[in-house]
Amino acid sequence: MAEPILETRALTRRFGGLRAVNNASIAFDEGVVHAIIGPNGAGKTTAINLLSGDLPPTSGTIRFRGRDITARPVQRRVRMGIGRSYQKTNILPELTCLDNCRLGALSRLPGGLARIRPSRAARRQVQARAEHALALCGLEARAGTVAATLSHGEKRQLEIGMMMATEPTLLLLDEPLAGMGQEESRRVTDLLRRLAADHTMILIEHDMDAVFAIAERITVMVNGAVLETGSVERIRASATVREAYLGEEAEP
Amino acid sequence: MTPRFPSSPLSPSLVLPLLFVVVAVALAFYPLVGETFYVRLMAKIIVLGILAMSLDLLVGYTGLVSLGHAAFSGAAGYITATLILKAGVTDMALLLPASLAVSALLALVIGWISVRTSGIYFIMITLALGQMTYLFFHDVSYWGGTDGVTVWDKPVLAVGGLTLLDLSDRTVFYYTAWACLVAVYALLWLLMQAPFGQIVRGVRINPGRTRALGHDVQRYQLAVFVIAGTVAGLAGFLEVARSGFISPAHLGWHESAMVLIIVILGGMGTLVGPVIGALTLVLLEDWVADLTSHWKLAVGLFVIAVVLFLPNGLVSLLTRGAGPPWLRRRRAAPAEAEGGDDG
To answer: What distance in Å separates the CA atoms of residue B295 and residue B91, rounded to the nearest whole number?
Structure first.
């Protein structure tokens, strides 16, 4: 089997006495949508923060395409192709939707002078990337709208568009459906399914219908530790998982 | 480049650069009509305007409130004055690069330390490092102590035997400073329109998210810090060429705070605002000082009134409170898009 695109070994993050993520070793395969589920406080968001570089781990390693990235800061991971969206909407509210995406697209410009006097081609490329990302997340019609005035669902879409503007190959999605109505939720689920066709995804989501609709593999976390990893069917069938997590919610 | 969406005729992206053009043209013609005293005052205002513009790059454009900005203009001023006095150098081709290099280097060191912090800590650390620079020039006797350095020779730019600029000539100085003001405005405006400026805008609005979009936030903050420090160095050089005098007071936090007040008064996050702020504060002080000995009180009240009623600064009188969007959060949600950092 091919080497996993992202792999954690004995990843641990402590907050004081609490082990938010405890000795987690997970392999994420390229091209696969891999969901991380678990009850509240299981350490899912902390895990994403460790993978994206927003938080440094207490111990353990993270390898991306075989390279140790444990010590690399967020921005370098982004430029390596690891994109991330946030659970709490994290956009630049005063800017237009297009400018929000443009900021992501600009990270693909080479450094140095190109950022002060970019060539016409580079400028056009940034513009095209930003527009493409905006179209991907379905907000083309809102290009000139100030982001602060978007609806909640649209902001969540923009969040994904901004991430896509950095042209990631691996997407870290922290509850992309959080706080969405049914209609919005369906729209974003469709969007994620489309993106899944040519991206690797690591997805945290509480909406189990969405998880079962998109994910191919599932890791169940409980109290910071990995309980089980496997195919959707296996996780559905697992007695341990049902007992620890699904059981409580699957109650009629 | 950026497609602009419906914006009012009073869009700041149009009005503010236009305002600068008007101010620059007025300043260019003023020596032809003004009294000598006021022409000299205008020269002072031009230098102060350059200094305030450089600070606004940090405060208004990058969201880094520095209370130690006078350290850079002051250090450059000291280098200029000391080279003239102790080494007899008057060659502008040497003095200017030397003072710019010193202020850039100092900004690199202070900036490197400061950008590791944010918010109130950034203010405190720039204040502390600025005061350290102040004490360095105040306490090391080589620099002349509290009395500072007075020079009678002024920088001269000559090529071969031909004198191009002799800054001891007040008219030559005036137009040299004026050209610097225009050049600094143009350069900073271009810089802020470039991708660099767009990323810096992201850093100001949401540094965490800008980092997560692949940008090294601290590196951009440091780059702006060094650019601002270097431009401040230009102002410091010009100040010594203008007044022939530099003292520790030029570096102190009083001076830094005064420049900050000028920026806030004129309008943060605009390049023309600081120039308007410098014009207003200096002319107001001059006018009120003639009327009453309590002029500082009167000027203070004026500043408070502006901050209360025109939080976007005096330039917002023209843009009808439009100004940089992040300063008008309290207003109803804006219905249309417009560029933030203009002019």
So the answer is: 40
